[in-house]
Structure formats: structure tokens, C-alpha cells
């Protein structure tokens, strides 16, 4: 934690709730599923509680799963869920005494207020209960190593209830913890998350400005947040970067009013949508947070001229992605933007075939990007001055 | 700029009130019994209604032609069923006939579970058949009052309550059916009585008097003897079904994903009938349990949010009253059938039993209920074995199946058969089930002979007693439970009590 952050924390802390030193608490958190996208919250949350350290498991890898996860999975599921076994197993071999595996029920989505709900996929939220069983059925593997296992129910979409569930879960492991402290820590967590989000979106805007100024194409990735994990998304995005194409992720696109009004203003004027973040024109069951954001990302990608190709990543057996395949592709392609899908991603990284496909896509990018940019620009009002950097 | 000029979410044309008399509502997804009763409730409100034809194996193949790859089997089967129906209607009445004379009504729930998104797959069917003009409406399962654009279909209190009654009655007759058929003396008699019962109840729903609009209607449904009278008439039919309960059969409780567990047909390999043919007594899952779960989830959420809810005590009282009246209504109807159908399990107990293994707020599909139900059946000696039906690729159920690993470690005595249903791998699924069923059969027999030994009775002696007391061989004769699982074991103990002049 930086010096400035420490000062802010102290300033905001109500009297009588001085931070307790909990140097003895060493927290381990698996780097899995929706922890991707919420990690800054967890770090700031536990720092605010004064724990000794917060350790994340490594990125997902075949080795991790083989070494620590095999034999712990008791059902068939998508790989991102099964991989949790490897993360938990790995953390059992780290210097921790409190293992926190959050059951993230809903997410703090930027689309909140414009969609029906911001829930996690049911498998994603339930994964901890499932994988935990594999570490308990033949004896308590956590207790054997002197580690307390805590799995809080985490409704980011219900911020008033979030401290309650976190407090309920943590009080069994940290006896002197108080509700007031948890409330404060949640505030700190959200603040850190907002700050991270702001910076990431700022970087995306920087990329878009660069593309605008240099008239260069970019690639937009539509996936789930955990496809940023190299072991889940197999670094397909990095392959495009290696070839010189800037990559944008749907969940960190810039949300500046002037930009959204440029792209979606006409739809709002015509009454097709209430707001640039409204997706009801193309998607009516807007319960799932990640799905909603993917759909909105597709709309954004179909409009922004310099996004000339959209890359869809999807894991094998993803039931949340399945109903979206046709709508997403059609939203993107209807504007002439190229659409490519890497589906059925699983445990093994098919490096060779990924590279061949990326090279093929790169050929199309090189061949058609300028035409796509021109065609998309023609359908929009003049480029906003904020987008051009001289 | 229009980023998605060619793609817009499906929006059905309005269905106008004046079209009601010529437009038929199509619906499906439940057993033929439930669907027929819902038809009665809809016709009672002035609608033309027709259930989709029963699911067939070929619907899976038809569905695969239309929906995006990777769909679960309930999505594929139901989408295929819809496609088959629309294609048939197109042949019979032409494209315009289908578009103008029919609408399809479906429900959504569960939020992030795929159940809430089935309609996306149905949209692919409409596109594939070039029937985007055909009207399909998605209704919210949890809303008492809603209407489609144009007012052609209005879900108001009388209709909602009629549908609820239809659901309850369908559940109760299904319970009667499955507790009777394995023991019927005259083969085929149960099925015949089921058909007759459903017809009586269909007529009752169709001719239901419409008293009051909202609160008046609600009160009428809560206190009327209209439905219990109809059920008493039905009970007379069941009185005539003679059963032989001296057959030790394993009781198999069906749990699982909503559609698969309630389904009776090729969508789940007809597994309930298959289990009966293999010598089991099946405990079917009532739709009412799932509705009860949804009501209780609202109560649980309310309790958690107590410090933040304005007027908490009033809201809690209302919600608790709704839950109480729901159960009371179900129990009143059960009573009219001699309490043969099973009572609804306590949702609080299901939650408590599942708590160490599955958090109650992890909703989607059946949530914690699958674990709760398995433990409930074990603790209450309700079944020898649990058969959980999960569709291949089901989002929530795979998670609770995984969590069951710890449950089985804690309760090694629990016989649990999780069956993954793909729709096209029948032999594999049934053989897995059979392995567990073999052990369940053994247990049922052991228990039966233990009770015979304990009571000192012989089969001959019991048969003689039955000859003198033929009423105990009626399907509607209620055999109390004495702490044994099997029907036969409880029956033997009961006869022993009767012989001693006690009950």
C-alpha cells in the first residue's frame, strides 16, 4: 500500500476503529474466474483489515493443474472452473494460514442500472463449493496444513449486504474482526477497484487515440474476464500484439460521454435505446454481468471505426456463451467488422493452430482494415476532437 | 451510425385482445398431465390453448439443426419440439396460418442459468424456419400480473391462481400415479385412472367459477371447497384400484434439473417408467417444490437484508403468510386424496441440511436444493436411492453434483446416482443407474424381511388378513410410516399393528 493510500485510510477511519495489527494473518486467494476483474478489491480489502500479507496463486497452467489439482475435481465442467482445483492445491503449499475463496455471486458492472442484473455465471459463483469437496472428501486437506478455509458469499451487486456476508465468513477465522472494520475495508476495496478500472479505461482510450491519429486498426477481444489468464485464454491476444496490432478488452473500454455519444447518439435520439449503455435493443435477458458486457462490447466494436476485427474467445462447454454466439457475431458483422472465434478453449494450449489462425487473421486485417475504417467512419458524425492527438 | 442494422433482438408483434378468439396459445415443457390442466385454466379465462406435442427423440436432432452449438439437452429438445410443431402447422395451415393463428408462450427464470435464456434458442428456431413474424412471448415466472403488448394475453390474478391450481393438481395426480402403479394388481389400471382423473380436473379448471378479480379471487381460491370436491370425485376412481403392497421395491427419489426431473418421455430416456420396469417405486418431483423454493429464497434474502429493508416486519409477515398459504393449499388438496401424495419438504430444513456443503444464496437452477433433497430423503427415510438427472452441460447442476462428493464422504450409506442426460446416450445412462439400483433393491428386500421377522408375520398370514379387510388393498388406503423406507416394510408393520388392534 502506498503512503498516500495509508493516509487516506487513516483519515477515513471512524474513531474507535483503529486498525488492528493482524500480521499473523497470511491470506491466500486463488487467481481464478471472477477474481480476474476484482483482484484490486481483494488486495485493498485485506490490507485495510491489517493482515500480514495477501498471496495470489500463480496464473493457470497445465503444470499447476497436473501437480496440485488432479484428482480433486469431482465432475465434468468447463476448464476455468476445474482449474480452481490447481489454484487451491498450489496455495496449500504456500506460506498462508487463511485461504479465501470468494463465491462471487454478482459483479460491480459498469452496466448496472441499464440491465436486469449483474450476476455471475452459476458455475462461476458455485465453483468454490464444488471444488472444496475434492479437498475434503478424503480428509480435511486444509486443516492438515493448519490453514483455515473461508469461502464468503460475495454479492458485489448488493453493496449494502456485501460487508455482512464477508463479516459472517471471516469472523470464524479472524476472531477479533468487527462489522465496522469490514464495512470500511469494503469501501477501500471498492475504491481500489474503481481506481484500477479508471486507469485501465484510460489506457484503452490512449490506444484508441493512437489508432485514430495514426489511422491504424485495433483488435477487440470479447471473452470472459478470466480469459486474461494465460492458462485459460492461451495468450491469443498477445499473439496479435506481437504482430503489431493493438488489443482492446471489452471490459475496459473507455466510457467517456463524448465518445459514447458519438458512437451511440443516433440510436438514443431515435429511441432505440435509452442510453449508450443500454443493450435492450439486441439482448433481452440481461441477467449475466459478463454476458451483458460482451454484448455491449460487440456493439461498441461494431461502431468504433478503428476496431476492424473482433476476436471471440470461449471455453469448451461454456453454457453462458452458447446462447450469445449468433447475436454477438451478427452484431459485429452487420457493420462490416470482421469477426473471428476461438471456441472450445480447454486445458491444452494449441500453440501451433493458434499461431496459424492468428497469422491468417492478420492477413485479413492487413488486407481489409483500411476499407473497414473508411466505411465505418462514413456512417458516423465527424470524429470528435478529443479523439485526435496532434 | 447503426452498428447492428441487421441484428435486433426479437420483438414479437402485438397480440391484440380481439384476436383471442382465433389465436391459439402454444406452450409446453411439463408433463402431459400438467399441460392438460393448464389448458383447462387457460380455456377458463377465454383463451384457446394447446400444449406442444410430447417430446420425441427426433426433437433432439431437429433442435441441433437450429440452436447454437453447445446447448444443453433441455434447450435442444424443447427447441426441436417447437420447430417440429411449427413445421407441421406450416404444412397444415400455411405460413400465414402459423403466424396469424398461433402464438408460443414460454417462461423464463433463474437469471443467469440457461433456463432464463431458452428463448434465445427459440429465436434461432424462428429464424431458421423463416418465421420471425411468428409471435413468441416470454413471461416472468415470478410475476402474478403481466400482459403482452396488445393485451391479447393478460396474466392476471385469476389466471395465475388457476395455473397454480393446475400445477398443484398435476403434481398430486402424478404422486398418486407413481405410488400406485408399481403395486397395481390389474396392469394398466393406474394409467387409465390417471387419464380419467386428469379429465375430471381439466373440466373442473375449465369450468371454475370466476369470483372476484384480485383479492376476492385470491380468497376464493384459498377457502373454496370447489377443488377438494373435484379431488374427492377423483379419489373414488382411485378407491377402485387394488394394489399389492407386499412387494419389496426400492424407493427411488428423482431429483435434478427442473425440466429433466419433471419430464416424462424420451427427453430423459423415459427413466421413470424404466425404473418401474426394473422393479422400483419412483418418487416424482413435484413442480410445487420448486415454486416453494423460489418463494423461500425471497424470504431468506429478506431476512439477510433486514437492517436495510424499510418496513421489514410487514414485508416478512406478508412473505411468510404467502409461504404458509401456499403450503396450506397444497396440504388441503393432498388431504382430499387421503394424504397419499407426499407433503412438500420444509424449505428451511433443506437449506439447513445443505448448508455445510452449499451456500443457500447460490441461486440458479435448483441451487442448494439438490443436496438438501438428497439428505432430506436419507434422514427422513424417504427413499432408498437418489437418482439425480442433470443435463449434459447444465450450469448449476454440475456444481452441486461435484459438491456431493463431500456429502457422500460424510454419508457413505447414501445411494446416489447422478445421471448425465445428453439425450442420445441412453444405454450409458441407464446402466449407470442400474448399478446403484441393484444395491437399492437389496436394501429394500433386507428391510422387508427384517420387518417380517420382527413382526413374526408370514406373507400367507398377511394375505389372509387382507382377505378379511379388503379396504387395505385400496390404492387410497393410507399406510402410516413407521421409520422404514420401503412401502412394503411399512405395510407389513402396519398390518401387524392392525392385527394387534392398534394403528
From TrEMBL, chain B:
InterPro entries: Dehydratase_Activator_Redct. It comes from the Bacteria. This is DUF2229 domain-containing protein. The lineage of its organism: Bacteria, Pseudomonadati, Aquificota, Aquificia, Aquificales.
Amino acid at each position: 500500500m502506498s503512503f498516500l493510500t495509508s493516509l487516506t485510510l487513516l483519515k477515513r477511519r471512524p474513531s474507535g476503529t483503529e486498525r488492528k495489527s493482524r500480521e499473523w494473518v497470511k491470506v491466500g486467494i486463488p487467481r481464478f474466474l471472477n477474481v480476474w476483474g476484482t483482484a484490486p478489491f481483494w488486495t485493498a480489502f485485506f490490507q485495510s483489515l491489517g493482515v500480514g500479507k495477501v498471496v495470489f496463486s500463480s496464473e493457470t497452467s497445465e503444470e499447476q493443474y497436473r501437480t496440485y489439482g488432479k484428482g480433486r475435481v469431482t465432475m465434468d465442467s468447463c476448464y476455468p472452473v476445474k482449474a480452481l482445483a490447481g489454484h487451491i492445491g498450489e496455495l496449500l503449499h504456500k506460506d498462508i494460514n487463511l485461504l479465501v475463496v470468494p463465491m462471487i455471486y454478482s459483479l460491480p458492472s459498469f452496466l448496472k442500472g441499464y440491465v436486469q442484473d449483474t450476476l455471475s455465471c452459476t458455475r462461476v459463483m458455485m465453483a468454490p463449493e464444488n471444488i472444496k469437496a475434492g479437498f475434503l472428501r478424503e480428509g480435511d486437506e486444509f486443516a492438515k496444513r493448519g490453514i483455515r478455509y473461508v469461502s464468503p458469499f460475495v454479492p458485489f451487486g448488493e453493496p449494502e449486504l456485501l460487508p455482512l456476508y464477508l463479516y459472517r465468513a471471516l469472523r470464524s477465522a479472524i476472531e477479533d474482526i468487527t462489522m465496522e472494520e469490514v464495512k470500511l475495508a469494503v469501501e477501500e476495496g471498492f475504491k481500489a477497484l474503481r481506481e484500477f478500472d479508471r486507469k485501465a479505461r484510460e489506457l484503452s482510450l490512449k490506444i484508441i487515440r493512437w489508432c485514430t491519429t495514426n489511422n491504424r486498426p485495433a483488435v477487440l477481444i470479447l471473452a470472459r474476464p478470466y480469459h486474461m489468464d494465460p492458462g485459460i485464454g492461451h495468450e491469443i491476444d498477445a499473439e496479435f500484439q506481437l504482430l503489431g496490432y493493438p488489443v482492446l478488452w471489452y471490459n475496459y473500454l473507455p466510457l467517456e460521454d463524448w465518445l459514447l455519444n458519438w458512437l451511440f447518439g443516433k440510436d438514443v435520439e431515435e429511441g432505440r435505446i435509452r442510453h449508450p449503455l443500454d443493450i435492450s435493443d439486441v439482448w433481452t435477458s440481461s441477467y449475466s454481468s459478463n454476458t451483458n458486457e460482451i454484448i455491449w462490447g460487440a456493439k461498441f466494436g461494431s461502431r468504433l471505426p478503428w476496431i476492424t476485427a473482433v476476436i471471440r474467445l470461449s471455453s469448451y462447454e461454456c453454457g453462458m456463451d452458447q446462447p450469445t454466439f449468433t447475436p454477438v457475431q451478427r452484431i459485429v458483422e452487420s457493420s462490416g467488422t470482421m469477426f473471428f472465434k476461438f471456441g472450445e478453449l480447454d486445458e491444452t494450449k494449441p500453440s501451433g493452430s493458434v499461431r496459424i489462425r492468428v497469422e491468417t487473421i492478420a492477413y485479413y486485417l492487413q488486407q481489409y482494415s483500411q476499407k473497414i475504417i473508411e466505411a465505418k467512419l462514413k456512417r458516423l458524425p465527424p470524429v470528435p476532437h478529443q479523439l485526435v492527438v496532434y | 451510425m447503426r452498428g447492428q442494422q441487421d441484428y435486433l433482438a426479437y420483438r414479437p408483434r402485438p397480440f391484440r385482445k380481439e384476436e383471442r378468439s382465433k389465436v391459439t396459445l402454444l406452450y409446453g415443457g411439463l408433463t402431459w398431465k400438467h399441460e392438460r390442466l393448464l389448458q383447462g385454466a387457460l380455456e377458463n379465462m377465454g383463451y384457446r390453448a394447446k400444449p406442444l406435442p410430447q417430446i420425441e427423440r427426433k426433437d433432439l436432432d431437429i433442435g441441433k439443426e437450429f440452436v447454437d452449438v453447445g446447448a444443453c439437452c433441455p434447450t435442444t429438445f424443447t427447441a426441436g419440439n417447437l420447430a417440429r410443431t411449427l413445421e407441421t402447422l406450416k404444412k397444415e395451415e400455411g405460413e400465414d396460418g402459423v403466424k396469424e393463428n398461433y402464438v408460443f408462450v414460454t417462461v423464463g427464470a433463474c437469471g443467469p442459468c440457461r433456463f432464463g435464456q431458452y428463448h434465445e434458442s427459440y429465436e434461432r428456431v424462428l429464424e431458421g424456419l423463416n418465421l420471425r413474424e411468428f409471435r413468441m412471448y416470454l413471461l416472468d415466472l415470478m410475476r402474478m400480473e403481466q400482459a403482452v403488448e396488445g393485451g391479447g394475453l393478460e396474466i392476471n390474478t385469476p389466471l395465475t391462481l388457476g395455473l397454480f391450481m393446475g400445477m398443484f393438481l398435476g403434481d398430486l395426480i402424478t404422486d398418486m400415479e407413481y405410488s400406485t402403479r408399481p403395486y397395481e394388481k390389474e396392469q394398466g389400471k393406474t394409467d387409465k385412472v390417471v387419464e380419467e382423473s386428469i379429465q375430471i380436473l381439466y373440466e373442473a379448471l375449465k369450468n371454475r367459477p370466476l369470483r372476484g378479480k384480485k383479492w376476492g379471487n385470491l380468497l376464493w381460491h384459498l377457502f373454496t371447497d370447489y377443488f377438494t370436491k373435484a379431488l374427492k370425485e377423483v379419489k373414488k376412481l382411485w378407491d377402485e384400484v387394488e394394489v399389492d403392497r407386499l412387494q419389496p421395491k426400492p424407493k427411488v427419489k428423482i431429483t435434478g434439473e427442473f425440466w429433466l426431473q419433471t419430464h416424462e418421455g424420451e427427453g430423459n430416456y423415459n427413466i421413470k417408467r424404466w425404473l418401474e420396469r426394473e422393479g422400483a417405486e419412483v418418487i416424482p418431483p413435484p413442480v410445487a417444490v420448486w415454486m416453494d423454493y423460489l418463494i423461500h429464497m425471497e424470504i431468506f434474502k429478506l431476512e439477510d437484508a433486514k437492517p436495510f429493508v424499510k418496513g421489514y416486519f410487514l414485508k416478512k409477515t406478508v412473505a411468510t403468510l404467502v409461504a404458509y398459504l401456499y403450503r396450506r393449499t397444497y396440504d388441503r388438496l393432498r388431504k382430499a386424496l387421503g394424504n397419499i401424495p407426499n407433503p412438500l419438504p420444509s424449505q428451511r430444513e433443506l437449506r439447513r441440511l445443505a448448508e455445510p456443503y452449499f451456500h443457500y444464496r447460490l441461486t440458479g437452477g435448483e441451487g442448494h436444493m439438490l443436496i438438501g433433497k438428497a439428505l432430506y430423503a436419507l434422514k427422513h427415510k424417504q427413499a432408498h436411492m437418489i437418482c439425480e438427472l442433470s443435463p449434459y452441460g447444465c450450469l448449476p447442476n454440475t456444481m452441486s453434483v461435484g459438491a456431493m462428493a463431500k456429502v457422500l464422504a460424510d454419508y457413505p450409506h447414501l445411494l446416489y446416482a447422478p445421471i448425465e442426460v445428453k439425450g442420445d446416450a441412453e444405454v450409458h445412462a441407464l446402466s449407470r443407474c442400474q448399478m446403484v439400483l441393484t444395491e437399492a433393491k437389496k436394501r429394500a428386500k433386507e428391510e422387508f424381511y427384517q420387518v417380517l421377522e420382527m413382526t413374526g408375520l408370514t406373507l400367507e398370514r398377511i394375505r389372509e388378513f387382507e382377505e378379511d379387510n379388503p379396504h387395505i388393498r385400496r390404492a387410497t388406503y393410507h399406510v402410516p410410516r413407521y421409520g422404514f423406507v420401503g412401502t412394503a416394510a411399512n405395510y407389513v408393520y402396519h398390518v401387524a399393528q392392525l392385527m394387534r388392534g392398534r394403528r
